[in-house]
Amino acid sequence: AGPRLNNDQLYKFSYTTEVLVDRARGSKEGSTGYRISSDVDVNLVWRDPSNKDDQLIRLAISNVRIDPVAHRPEKKNILHGSTAESIMGKSKLSAMTKPFLVHLKNGKAKAFYSYWAEPAIIKNLKRGVASLLQVQPNTGKVVENDVSGRCTIEYKGVKGQVTRTKLLDTCKTAETGFTTHSQVLGVSKKASSVTVFTLEDGFIKSAVAEETHTLSVNARRSTAAKVVSRQTFTLVGKEAGPAEAAGKDVAGVVKSLDAKLAAVGIMAEKVKYQCKGCPSLFEHWQAQEKQLEPANLSKVTAPRSFLALIQSLRKASKDEVLKVLKSASKTALPQVVDAVTSSQTAASLDAMLEFLNFTDAKGLVLQERFLYACGFASHPTEQMLKSLLDISKGKIGSTDIKESVVIIMGALVHKLCQKGGCDLPTVVQVKKMILEGPDSTQVEADVQMYLLALKNSLLPEAIPILTKYAESEVGAYCTIALTALQRYDIGLITDEVKHTVNRVYHQNRRIYEKNVRAAAADVILSSNPSYMEVKNVLLSIGSLPHEMNKYMLSKIQDILHFEMPASKVVRKAMKDMISHNYDRFSKVGSSSAYSGFMAQSADVTSTYSLDILYSGSGILRRSNMNIFGASKGAVLHGLQVAIEAQGLESLIAATPDEGEEDLESFAGMSALLFDVQLRPVTFFKGYSDLMSKMFSMSGEPMNVVKGLILLTDHSEVIQLQSGLKASAEFQGGLAIDISGGMEISLWYRESKTSVNNRGALVVTGNVTIDMDFVRAGMEVSFETEASLDFITTVQFSEYPFLVCMQMDKATFPFSEYLTTYESLPSGKSVVSRKGRKQLVPGSEFPLHQENSNMCKRVFDSSW
């Protein structure tokens, strides 16, 4: 059953709906929004003679008023002195007051009759009133259609009162949004919708509804906004009403009343907003251009302009996008490529593909920026992957780009699979290509390219391939395969994988280079090791090459000091005196492994780790710096910069370590950024290349990554039960500049490696309620600029050589802002902005005590 109307009676209701946007924990006074009040007359038009609960009901809205939600002084009230007609316009107001019909059967709305020609926003507001007629007195769960979509509803009925709870996460609507795949960088949402009905004499006496939607940035939960929507529908009196119409069925009765009335659907329809007086994309670009020049990339104005440009790009056509690409200055163009690619619309992708010429090797910088922006895409499409597949099949001018295309395709496969798109035709095609890739070629660079693509894809089917390459004769293959295995979920690391990795570490089948064995040790110790595995690792210390003993010792101590998952089993194994004795644990050397906290807050914990392995002669073999972010159980690999060097012993007439006698001279750097492995960069390769660079080494660092990245990207339309809509846009942009370098001075017998990270971050959350005739909204945001330098100085004039590591964080500003805005199409508007700034002091990160002692000696001796 459901509510029943009496014949020949007119029910007079007062109706108000209000909607406001506020901070998550704000008061009504600080909020922005408006209230629409009106009278609603309700009467029965027709009832099925055989079923009293099958009714056609007429509703008519009158006496419409629009006011701000909170009391405002006159100056700040844009609605002061206006009437509903002056705000809405004559035609919208007359449409609003035109009667409409609802077909109600057993308390469920079967159809909503109004006029096709009416503006969508008016029909939606009427649907909002109609949603308050759906009620059932008995307790239970049902699926209902109303203005919010098709939702699961829970009813609880107690003596004349019914509570209706709408389970909003079950609602299916026509409008879809998107969100960032990474939880650490993402946005969390909480929503509730409850309506309380009081019934009297079989019909509704009152209905009070409250719905809230709260969105917050996971990395900083205080950056949040909420939308609150309330509806009250109260019976104020009854009068004698019109008589019931005659007719056999609903359709016939509706037709006889007004031939233009039509069943226009009960769910909300999309509302197209015409932006009046908004700047075109090109005008917008001209206003932002200066902020995107390279000189401004480490200031917060760069990511702010980048985010604003993306919003504008998302509404633009392909031709408009091309116009901006063609007019940008040579220096600002790479940043424009970042923005166009990050906007992730079909039009911007088409424009990029037309603009870039992959057969031209001179376009390397722009091509790579496009590829990296694809790799960092927040919600990539199958079309984006297909475009990269087509590029990889065509002629590519630069071998670096050829490698980058395949490596980034791996990252896109991972993201598409995460969203349930693993069976899309293009994904299947690319999976086949990268899984078969390593065995399909003898070219060393190509094998590495495919292995790096697999490292990005994290496909479970790649584990056997990576396991096979972990035992390869080529050191570079082993390192990539082992570091890739370390990125997998521990549950996927089978006993077979563990046996292989242990064989590599213990050199059961062949001699391996030190950095390969170190990478194998990392996999063993981070994959839930058994007591025997740990014991065997401990027993190996003492019989390893000189510097590796020290590295492994440091690694074990770091696991204990940082309470890593393996610490329990390590403690247990160390109770055995054979594996834990003075001889083993007193090895000297300069290699080390250390982890620590960078920042801890209630929302995110960021940690860093620094591992450095030297060769016996004092030259750097591998340095690895990592930064992780963890939030509510999810982990993000924010940054990894690995510098590798080999075969440099001949420079200082030293003897290479075991297994490294025939290595060619090489130094390079590999970066992984926000879970995406980028193409490695080579400093020099081969003796002649090394010698020419040695004498021309200016010590200027080589750029590894530079650009703008869209980190957080959440967009949705929130359909409220009142018929109104709120749109939420949360975006986070990062301007980043990472460079690294290595210089060697034979004269001073000293080498220096440096990794410099510069960044500026802006995160904004915008929630707007746009009714076409009045608009209100709020923006919450925070921004910061930071720099982090990691420098290692080595003096190898004596043994054990001196190593000093420095990791410095400069003092950085941190600002938060809250802006509320209200405007009318006439241009009348009110904006209020509050902000607070603070300076976070810089610091030098404390590495281990041994390092501090070494630094004193290095800097004393260099004076």
UniProtKB/TrEMBL annotation:
Q: Which Pfam families match?
A: MTP_lip_bd, Vitellogenin_N
Q: Which GO terms describe its biological process?
A: cholesterol homeostasis; digestion; lipid metabolic process; lipoprotein biosynthetic process; lipoprotein transport; long-chain fatty acid transport; medium-chain fatty acid transport; sprouting angiogenesis
What are the residue boundaries of the Vitellogenin domain, all occurrences included? 5-639
Q: Where in the cell is it found?
A: Endoplasmic reticulum
Gene Ontology CC terms, in alphabetical order: basolateral plasma membrane; endoplasmic reticulum; Golgi apparatus
Keyword Transport among record annotations: yes
Record's keyword terms, sorted: Disulfide bond, Endoplasmic reticulum, Lipid transport, Signal, Transport
Principal subcellular localisation of the protein: endoplasmic reticulum
| Keyword Phosphoprotein appears in the UniProt entry | no
Q: Which GO terms describe its molecular function?
A: lipid binding; lipid transfer activity; phospholipid transporter activity
- Which first-to-last residue range defines the signal peptide? none
The record's annotation in PANTHER family points to: MICROSOMAL TRIGLYCERIDE TRANSFER PROTEIN LARGE SUBUNIT, MICROSOMAL TRIGLYCERIDE TRANSFER PROTEIN, LARGE SUBUNIT
* The name this protein goes by in its record: Microsomal triglyceride transfer protein
Species whose genome carries this gene: Myripristis murdjan (pinecone soldierfish)
Q: Give the encoding gene's name.
A: MTTP
